[in-house]
Amino acid sequence: MFGSDPNSGGHSSNTALIPTRFVWPYGGCQVLLSGSFTGWTEHVLMSPMEGCPTVFQVICNLTPGYHQYKFNVDGEWRHDEHQPFMSGTYGVVNTVLLAREPNVPINIFGADIPGNMEVDDAIIRPIVPPEGVTQKGISEADVQVSRHRISLFLSQHTAYELLPESGKVVALDVTLPVKQAFHILYEQGVPVAPLWDFGKGHFVGVLSAIDFILILRELGNHGSNLTEEELETHTILAWKDRKIRQDRQIDGGVKPYARQLISAGPYESLKDVAVKILQHNVSTVPIIHSPSSDGSLPQLLHLASLSGILKCICRHFRHSSGSLPILQQPICLIPLGTWVPKIGEASRQPFAMLRSNTSLGAALSLLVQADVSSVPIVDDNDSLLDIYSRSDITSLANDRAYAQIRLDEMSIQQALQLGQDANSPCGVLSGQRCQMCLSSDPLHKIMERLSNPAIRRLVIVEAGSKRVDGIITVSDVFRFLLG
Fold first, then answer.
1. So what's the architecture of 6-123 in CATH?
2. Does the pTM exceed 0.85?
3. Could you tell me the sign of the dihedral formed by the alpha carbons of 104, 105, 111, 116, in that order?
4. What is the DSSP letter of 83?
5. Which of 20, 103, 243, 306 has its CA 20 to 30 A from that of 31?
6. Residue 447, Cβ neighbours under 10 Å: how many?
7. pLDDT tens, 22-58?
8. Residue pair 106/21 in contact by the 8 Å Cβ criterion
């Protein structure tokens, strides 16, 4: 039992103690907790949460009343700016007022979390800050100032700055057989490749995971004219032409294919490139240098993505984050991402989740018809198990695995296992597929993580239980930043 603090109101030895969970969700190697309830002399070691190594927690039994506390993170005293705080004898400290409710676990985590939701079997109740204690919030002025500065930066810098010092760019000839093309994507560890037409002398489109999904679904349909044997000779060009004809004839809920390539020049602004990606709902935009008069062929320089542009933003504002007030705000206070509807929120769109025993065919249909890039896989308690993304499907291109499956008979779990067993040479399709964050994470932390090209989305989970709260993609971040 921790020592009592004379300022906490005093108590007798038989005063009921309240189990109270303290959480530090901002990373570190070693995190210690100290407070008025320890006499500021004892430091309590906090433990990282399973599945969320950047989140540390500890449960302490406290007496009812007013308490102060702060964290020691890797030898540096810190306080949580997103919790009630004030200046006191021991510097800036967080505060909490515990009501006299014995045996009710309290979570010192975030005022955004509603009551009656389970985290490790503990009931979370909102914390009311004592009088005179402040809590940071978000204002429309902060949002507009931050958006203006980011927009100005993106307008003043060009796509040329996205080009790496070294690297490879994969392009495919439209005369390649479909099967060979997807095998190349798999071997090279890339989800998208521009298409080159030698006859026309320029790039004409892209081949992506969504093409492979549609092909698999067509192979699985009875009476399909496209057989597995035809994939040996069926060219990319023939496949694209066929899809365009089908889109003109029927509307089966599948979004029609774009008729022309969406690309950008090296001297277009980063803002223009980002807007193109968002407006056309594509994952990448080829950066192509097209000579105007010397007769040279167009040069494919790079595949621009929102994660690359986000990395430029993070790098530019890393040492001047104070000029962007919204960066310190937790994502729960920002209109960002797609969230699981709460009770009474009938206006919010349904949030798609799948069970591990869902058929692969049903999962692929959801990815295409709902026009989403990924769907969380959860257990019966809606706790996160894995995630299935469009890019995962290309693992089936290895060793003709796609020819051996039946979409309605194979589960998502079996499909993921098949992909893991394939031993990808680049490893790009595994390892970083399922990434989590918390609703209390600040926006700058989300942006830093999504600036990694291998991380395209973050699943928002409840601490401890890993119950899915929502999902944030890099596209969501840019839609918010660009207003």
1. Sandwich (2.60)
2. no
3. negative
4. S
5. 103
6. 19
7. 888 888 899 999 998 888 888 999 988 776 778 888 8
8. yes
